Amino acid sequence: MNKVIEFDEAQSTLYCEAGCILETLQNHTKDLGYMMPLDLGAKGSCQIGGNLATNAGGIKFIKQGSMHSNCVGLKVVLADGTIIDQMDPHVTLPIGYDLKQLFIGAEGTLGFITECAIFCPPYPKNRQVALLASNDYEQIMKCLQISKKELSSQLSAVEFMDWESASIAMDYLSLENPLSDEYKYYILIEMSGNSQEELLQEQMLELLEKLEDHYEDGLMCESETQKDQIWHIREGISMAASGYGLAFKFDISLESKDFEDIILKTQERVNHLGGRVLGHGHIGDGNLHLNTVMKGFKDMDTAKQIKEALQPFVFDYIKEKNGSVSAEHGIGLLKTDYLGHSKSSEMIGYMGMLKKVFDPKGILNPYKVLPDHAFKPGTD
Amino acid sequence: MNKVIEFDEAQSTLYCEAGCILETLQNHTKDLGYMMPLDLGAKGSCQIGGNLATNAGGIKFIKQGSMHSNCVGLKVVLADGTIIDQMDPHVTLPIGYDLKQLFIGAEGTLGFITECAIFCPPYPKNRQVALLASNDYEQIMKCLQISKKELSSQLSAVEFMDWESASIAMDYLSLENPLSDEYKYYILIEMSGNSQEELLQEQMLELLEKLEDHYEDGLMCESETQKDQIWHIREGISMAASGYGLAFKFDISLESKDFEDIILKTQERVNHLGGRVLGHGHIGDGNLHLNTVMKGFKDMDTAKQIKEALQPFVFDYIKEKNGSVSAEHGIGLLKTDYLGHSKSSEMIGYMGMLKKVFDPKGILNPYKVLPDHAFKPGTD
After folding, report:
1. Where are the domains of chain B?
2. Which of A49, A334, A373, B280 is the most buried (most CB within 10 A)?
3. Looking at the domain B4-119, which fold is it?
4. Which chain B residues have a beta carbon less than 8 Å from that of A137?
5. What's the pLDDT tens digit per position in B359-371?
């Protein structure tokens, strides 16, 4: 289940089994001059089948779009053993109902993904990375908006971190602060393309000029090593949080203008309990990782207090703002009751009916995604 | 049903009703500095709801991806009057089953689309257009592959026309041949981006240098007028064909390396009957418009002979090559029996079950998409 089947250059498409590790696929396609359209912190352990089942977003989402677009073929085994083979090798525009879309994001509750075909664009020849900092969140928002508009499809990533996130990662990875001071908020801007290095550099400098009034400190990376270092900080946050102690992780969809507000309100609720709030994420897509960590793993009383301070507070906040309780980590077992915060009862009703069509006995990933009232196995 | 509801700059998202004409939306977003991710010849009359229902591809598909990615919200009325409101304003990564994906491409047979939210990237500031010609189709394929690899996400369109297609459009539109001679095959290459005009020009020249050995004649447009003229030829083919006489149109998905083969084989079958074969389409996505026209509208005997020469020949050819009988024009009434050429009986069975979930009485666009055996209204 972890074999690369083929890379079809004419179609820029990777065919592989679902158990392939994302990073293995990244390396495989890079060697051929192409790029997996998906990248995320867990790349070293997550499998492409799981990425599809959870409709993973990640760092490249802003440029490459979602798995609903990049997954051009899927083979799925249904609960009764039927194989749905939609690996259509040469068909970019599917006809009839596009069944494969249903399995993307269904967390394995409608069928088991065994193979997939992923569209991979050419690997960009050059990239430029800048890190900008401000104590004023509104200025970070300005940087985001201007970068999106100016760079358009050359903007290959735009990430947000607050100081708590950046510093926990720097401590954990023993990296130095790349800027000379501490700032509340950071925005990482990456552009990439196939034009010559100097042309890209020029474009990044032009952008930074336009952003001039909107950051207090910043840098444009001068070497590949420096680019990697900046990315290490951003990508190290999750691991650093897990190494620090107990971590309470929320992965939410929210308008990016509200990121600061929910971070501050969460701090108010948990700082006095010893909780440390880390806010970071894919600011270009409105996807915030809102994590609270506490030192060590043993103080269960405090852990309980922190948990109660966070939940249902975070979910209620999201409901009020029309956000979503899970952006790219799925619903799983724990959040089924909160599906109703983002979906109407009619929609949940139809989801239950779809489950009944594909898995009437409820044997695929039972109890996940759908709340109990939406689906009871074996009823007709 | 034809109102623009809102353009949300922070999310680059257009909210509108389903009856809006595509071209109206293109103009509306362009005025705001953004671009509809969809463009096709029928833009002046087609509606965005129909584009979604048929999962339209079009010229920008190669850069912008499919409606499955760009449609970020949908409101649908089901057969029993239930409203499925998935307009989730701020959620880029949907959770639970992504119901809206089912209605995209279902041609109105599962529900009636009333509103949608479409992600629109910033309108690129500059574009460069080149037209290359060769009598050797393999060289056209080389131009395609090299352009894709070199330009990557800056490649905003790559279109194919044969001489019959180009010349019928030039005659119809009274445009002059932009090259000094006639060639069998043409490839139109457009790149776009936000970098300065001169930088883009430089990049296009670099590309043309790399393609040097692979075309016999060609030009790089020197003015906006010339760019528009080249595009008029490409976009005028469909209308020119309809004005010429009876037209037999196939819109198929096929590996682009097979485009020439099917064109030649079709010519063999219809040329002696007076049929003129026009091959053109989105070569970057393997989407060929294979049209046969005959002069005038009255000779029904010849029309019948041409029809019989084309069908089932074209569908059988596609089945053998694992292509698809309809790329972006849907299945409709006429092609339901050919769905089995591209889809397994298991898949068609599950499509029938989905139809039963959403429209058990079969009142939405009856007899369309699914073959009779897959769905009988009212049975349980």
Report:
1. 4-119, 126-222
2. B280
3. 3.30.465
4. none
5. 999 999 887 878 8
